[in-house]
């Protein structure tokens, strides 16, 4: 039997990861629950004044989305490493770049995409003006994809460690900062009546760069971790 084509192999990997995520609903629910809990706590800390919440809402929502993504990055390759299937993936004739990209896409679909879809509800809870909701959605859509790609690098480098959660935070958190800055700026610009397009374009450029380079770095990290 001939080996499957690269697109077919990647689609199988993506479907497999999504099926595993559905079978472990806790992995999907944890980021959403974390998002909801922190959003609910901020009014208690800042006070219920609508104007104050609206001023801080863009930064609050983006920080929570970043931390939610960071919370799940460690698990991107963990289960496959534990059961040995990650080693088989490295030995397969398929390009590792596309295999890694399939893993990252699955992670984004069950974390970043879901966070972007529910973000308007949490935005209204923090009294974010309606003018900023569209910018929040699109900035999270682009930004969380970048976070997943960058997080994959940290996950690959720490997958062989027993307690890699703290180390992955130290490795990739500085790389998350530009995404946080421009994502928050896009929402603030929309709220203030300024165009959010330039900030979204920068996020799009970051995503293009991450798609080109992050899977290469992730593949190299996996080889280092598995061979170590």
From TrEMBL:
Gene Ontology cellular-component terms for this entry are: plasma membrane
Looking up InterPro entries in the UniProt record yields:
Cyt_c_biogenesis_CcmB, Cyt_c_CcmB_bac
Q: What is the topology of this protein in the membrane according to its UniProt annotation?
A: Multi-pass membrane protein
Major site of localization recorded for this protein: membrane
The record's subcellular locations are: Cell inner membrane
The transmembrane residues are 56-77, 97-118, 130-159, 166-187, 199-222
Pfam families according to UniProt: CcmB
One example of a Gene Ontology biological process annotation: cytochrome c biosynthetic process
For this chain, one GO molecular function annotation is: heme transmembrane transporter activity
Keywords annotated in UniProt: Cell inner membrane, Cell membrane, Cytochrome c-type biogenesis, Membrane, Transmembrane, Transmembrane helix, Transport
Reported function: Required for the export of heme to the periplasm for the biogenesis of c-type cytochromes.
The entry sums up its family as follows:
Belongs to the CcmB/CycW/HelB family.
Q: Which NCBIfam families match?
A: ccmB
| Protein name (Swiss-Prot/TrEMBL) | Heme exporter protein B
Please give the organism: Pseudohalioglobus sediminis
Which gene holds the coding sequence for this protein?
Answer: ccmB
């Amino acid at each position: 039997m001939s080996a499957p084509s690269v697109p077919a192999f990647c689609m199988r990997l993506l479907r497999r990861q999504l099926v595993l995520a559905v079978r472990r609903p806790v992995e999907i629910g944890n980021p959403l629950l974390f998002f909801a809990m922190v959003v609910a706590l901020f009014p208690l800390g800042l006070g219920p004044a609508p104007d104050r919440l609206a001023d801080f809402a863009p930064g609050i929502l983006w920080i929570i989305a970043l931390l939610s993504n960071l919370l799940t990055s460690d698990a991107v390759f963990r289960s496959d490493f534990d059961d040995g299937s990650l080693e088989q993936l490295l030995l397969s004739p398929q390009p590792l770049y596309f295999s890694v990209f399939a893993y990252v896409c699955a992670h984004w679909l069950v974390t970043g995409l879901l966070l972007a879809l529910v973000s308007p509800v949490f935005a209204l809870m923090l009294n974010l003006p309606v003018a900023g909701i569209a910018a929040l959605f699109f900035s999270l859509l682009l930004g969380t994809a970048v976070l997943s790609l960058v997080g994959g690098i940290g996950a690959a480098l720490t997958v062989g460690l027993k307690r890699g959660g703290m180390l992955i935070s130290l490795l990739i958190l500085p790389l998350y900062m530009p995404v946080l800055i421009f994502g928050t700026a896009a929402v603030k610009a929309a709220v203030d009546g300024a165009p959010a397009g330039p900030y979204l374009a920068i996020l799009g450029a970051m995503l293009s760069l991450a798609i080109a380079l992050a899977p290469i770095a992730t593949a190299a990290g996996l080889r280092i971790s598995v061979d170590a």
